[in-house]
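User: quick one, fold this
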Amino acid sequence: MKKILNPIPFQGKKYLNKNKNYFEGWYFKITNQENGIAFIPGIQIEKMQKTSFIQIITKEKSYYITYPIETFEYKKNPFQIKVGHSIFSKEKIEININEENIKINGTIFLKEKENIMTSIVNPNIMGPFSYIPHMECNHAILSMQTLTNGEISIQDETLNFQNNNGYIEKDWGTSFPQNYIWLEGNQFQNKTTSFFLAIATIPYLCLKFKGLICVLIINHKEYRFATYNNTKIKELKHKKGKIYITLKKGKYTLKVEAKEKNTNNLKAPKHGKMNKEILESINSSIYIELKEKGKIIYKDKSNLCGLENVQ
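Assistant:
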């Protein structure tokens, strides 16, 4: 119960001394007005193979660096993980990677500005599904908007993230869904706006179902669209690098248009092992249009968005 209500700390302690398939990864994305970069620290366990890793995604390239599992360290309170010589928490990213093909160094300080609403019934974005045991993949949003301050030096370029935006989430389990759409953005014209959406085919026992989780926050008001609150997917289309989605819940209709740009390879878990290749973009664009009883009450566009379209 404690882990469900507080998903940010390391969940997989019991797997470190076992040979069962398992993965756990945290996703830290930071953006300024022109650039974005994402860091994914985590662990993979598959039979006798256990490693920790850090993935880095930029607009131009992606990197995957592995470390011995012994370099993975974690603290529960306050939350902190360490992979190699890099440290990640909700308050700070301290990156220190000096490999032959990639050198990234710097410190980014983080301060949460906005997150989703939670309760006993809806402990995180998965809502009541958070309580279902043995899900193939569990997902948690840790911060929809985080204030960033600091600099990152990547290769010979220095990126400044003073007074800019960050986003944090995590996944854990055995495998990513076989097919899914994942969108995230918080660089809207309205600075208070942030958006997340995932649609996936979810296997559970002998069944499969299409699961939806989506949250839109505008001026600190949350609009939640999800399978568990009876939201209907009215439209879902893919066409030439664009995604068109329409959701309907009660009096609200949410229209989403996403345009894919500059995808890079990303390693994803399959049966605990990070050997599935997918594509992710961190500078795609998302247009949203929210209607109440058929009348448009909000529309906006965000650049430097995260996008994965795995089919």
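User: anything notable?
Assistant: The first helix runs from residue 2 to 5.
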